[in-house]
Amino acid sequence: MKIIIAENYEDGCKKGAQMFLDLLARKPDALLGLATGDTPKGLYRELIAAAGDGRADFSTARTVNLDEYFGLDGKHDQSYRYFMEQNLFNHINLKPENITIACGVAPKSEEEARMRAFFDANPIDLQLLGIGRNGHIGFNEPEARLRSSFHYTALTEDTIEANSRMFKRSEDVPRAAYTMGVGDIMKAKSVLLLAFGPSKTEAVKKMCDDFVDPWCPATVLKMHPDATLIIDRELADAAGVK
Ligand code: PGA
């Protein structure tokens, strides 16, 4: 795993965005694996800026998202589809038919089958990831056994609590989600994980030791042939990463 220590959040987002811009220049119809959360917002701003001044063209690019809340329609303002529209899709020339995101209100077995068929037929070129403070990637939560394929999953209390900042009432925070499995993530040709700030210290420490630990799912990325971790200086210092 390649580790890049950026000066700060903006610098890390610029460096991450450049990987997407380089990929698109090389392969205009690349399949981009995207993520939600606070972390990737700056990277998306960089991509929007690049599209605006002619450094990027998304007209033949394709995207797929890591996960979606179970029970939320794509029009719900906390759904990940809505997040993607607000933070990226509405501002670039990506075609709606080239966007794939799980449908949070589709029946479980149908949605799992639809998304599994998609991943079987469409290899991801570059998968973007954030990381939960508990080490989750997508909604692959710490567990004794990790799931390989796209699946429905219950969320841990820690994740529900971390996500509650986005919802007015705690009873509205989704308790379950659809997510790519760790196998789907590992099959991406390249993987980029962004982590900034001290709340991710414990998870990043585990990413940088020598163990693959299902209780910190992001540690599987050590086995990926082309994984990059971008962290900021503050997190690098807190986690003891040189
Ligand atoms: P964050 O979430 O980017 O909002 O910190 C990351 C995650 O939980 O995967």
Explain what this protein looks like in three dimensions.
- With 242 residues, the protein is α/β, with parallel strands linked by helices.
- It has helices spanning 9-26, 41-52, 80-87, 108-121, 157-163, 182-187, 201-207, 233-239; strands at 2-6, 31-34, 62-65, 67-69, 99-100, 126-129, 151-154, 176-179, 190-195, 227-232.
- It starts with a strand and ends with a helix.
- The mean pLDDT is 97.
- The structure holds 2-phosphoglycolic acid.
- Residues 37-39, 130-132 line the site of 2-phosphoglycolic acid.
Structure classification: alpha/beta
Order of helices and strands: EHEHEEHEHEEHEHEHEH
Average pLDDT over all residues: 97
Instruction: Flag low-confidence runs.
Output: none
Using the CA coordinates, give the radius of gyration. Answer: 17 Å
Terminal CA distance: 14 Å
Neighbour order of strands in the largest sheet? 1-10-9-6-2-3-5
- What is the 3D shape? globular
Summarize the structure.
This protein is α/β, with parallel strands linked by helices. The protein is built from eight helices and ten strands. The chain has helices at 9-26, 41-52, 80-87, 108-121, 157-163, 182-187, 201-207, 233-239, and strands spanning 2-6, 31-34, 62-65, 67-69, 99-100, 126-129, 151-154, 176-179, 190-195, 227-232.
